Amino acid sequence: MHYSCSIHPNYPSRYLEYYKTGLETVLESVPAYRLWQAHDPGADSPLLARYAALPSLHKAYMVDQGCEGFLPPNKNIQQGLAQGEIEIVHTSGSTGDRVSNIWYQPWWDAAERASWKLNTHADRLRLGGHREAILTSPLCTGAVCEEGYLDISQRMDGRFLYLNERSDPFTWTPEHMDRMIEEINCFSPQVIEANPSFLACLSRYMVNNKRTVRSPGLIVFTYENPSGLHYRQVRAAFQSPIASSYGSTEAGYVFMECEAGKWHQNTDCCHVDFLPFKPEYGGPLIGSILVTSFSNPWRALLRFDIGDVVRVATEPCACGRSEGLVLEAIEGRAVNLTLTPDGQPVTQGRVDRSLSSIDRLDEYQLIQPGRSTYELRYVTAASRPAWVGEQITDHLKAVFGPAAKISVRQAEAIRPDPPGKYRLSKALFDIDKDSFIDEQYRPVII
Question: Which of 34, 83, 183, 430 is the most buried (most CB within 10 A)?
């Protein structure tokens, strides 16, 4: 088992020592990992080789072990709940097993603060006690109200204003969107945190109806992988810099997009193992990642399969940051992979880079029902929608090849999948991303 191909992240000595001590402590004392000790080649081996030899952690195993299985020996869940130090939260289960997590707010806040240092715009704002407006599906965070509307007092939580109570932007009325715009102007947030698809929908309305808004100091995309269309549409309505934040409920803040457009590992809070795909499947620069975090005192997370495919940067970033793993792109969820007719994996990112260059394309969703059949629905306000459809067909042929059978049709809207997140591409059959990983890096699964 090797650590990585030609990828050699820059890790300072303090980082390596921290993750050496953490690894040995967790293998020895955390119940869920005790069986993993047999896979550890030992202290005489290089640290990153020790990590690479271990199994990967999947949600099914987390469900099987429960919160107690990942608890450090000096912690008691019932006592923590009684004292109000922690709470139990559940992931949505949109892309796998529904996992119960011990939520410790100081850990989450510290990881978020550390991520801000990876983007100059965020760092300059000196964030912490700032006003923040949030535009996302209320099924992810906030208060749900599918019938009627909530008063602003019902959508305020301290310094946070939740702009939306509906899980599907297709149900937004002009009055609802005008209310969002007015509240942004009155609340004057320093940051807007948003599902990129939700903020893009509001942005299209603003541009089409000549609405103006007070732009915040920073817009942060989160909750879902953004499309190039989202960046373009939001930039047409706001003058704010945009940064995309990447992580999960289990792992915290893992990567942050810098001002130069690359993604930097949040080395203050996590370790990331990169597992390259085989060369014939896009490797060694494309692969999946496993996340380790020992900074949460209520749960040890070791080589967690976060479920995404990434593309590693090959050149130094123009922002000057060099510590940790640097990515060219988050290519998208593994569950959003599709295949060419000859079985080559195609990431959501690859599809999106092709389609997002098409003028007047507002939204799309690609579905692959069979091995060589592809169905795409798209939304456009163009006066010649058929022309947009022809462009889509040509672009998809370039991605999937001449054997691809492609059907394209215009739609009134693209509806989000539960829990209010958009999947820009997906196959209607199982695709095992681990089968694409180079055998010498493929982890053991327990």
Answer: 183
Residues contacting residue 244 through CB under 8 Å, at least 6 positions apart: 196, 220, 221, 222, 226, 256, 257, 263, 330
Q: Is the pLDDT of residue 443 over 70?
A: yes
Where b means 16+ CB within 10 Å and e means fewer, 388-410 reads: bbebbbebbeebbeeebebebee
At a CB cut-off of 8 Å and minimum separation 6, what does 267 contact? 11, 15, 323, 324
Question: In the 8-state DSSP scheme, what is residue 126?
Answer: T
**Helix crossing, 385-400 with 348-355: angle to 10°?**
140
- CATH number for 372: 3.30.300.30
Q: Which amino acid is at 67?
A: C
Omega within 30 of 0 (cis) for the link into 284 = yes
Q: Which two tokens stand for residue 328?
A: 């060219």
Beta strands, E only, 155-206 = 156-157, 160-162, 191-194
Spell out the long-range contacts of 109-114 with Cβ–Cβ below 8 A and sequence spacing 24 or more.
110/269, 110/295, 111/247, 111/252, 111/253, 111/266, 111/268, 111/269, 111/270, 111/295, 112/253, 114/253, 114/266, 114/268, 114/269
Whole-number percent of the chain with pLDDT over 70:
97
Q: Which pair of tokens denotes residue 261?
A: 């457009």
Structure tokens at 430: 């199982």
Q: How many residues are listed for the chain in this entry?
A: 446
Q: Please, what sign has the CA dihedral across residues 272, 105, 61, 422?
A: negative
Report yes or no on 423 lying in a domain.
yes
Q: Is residue 412 part of a domain?
A: yes
| pLDDT attached to residue 2 | 46
What total number of domains does the chain contain?
Answer: 1
Asked if residue 231 belongs to a domain, the reply is: no
**What's the burial of 167, exposed, middle or buried (CB within 10 Å: 0-12/13-18/19+)?**
buried
Strand pairing of 361-370 and 425-427? parallel
Structure tokens at 226: 């953004």
Contacts of 149 (CB under 8 A, 6+ apart): 165, 176, 179
Is the CB of residue 233 less than 8 Å from the CB of residue 92? Answer: no
Instruction: Please state, in angstroms and rounded to a whole number, the distance separating the CA atoms of residues 217 and 224.
Output: 21
Domain residues for the domain of 366 are 339-427
Contacts of 13 (CB under 8 A, 6+ apart): none
Residue 19 lies in a domain: no
Question: pLDDT averaged over the chain?
Answer: 95
Q: How confident is the model at residue 200, as a pLDDT?
A: 98
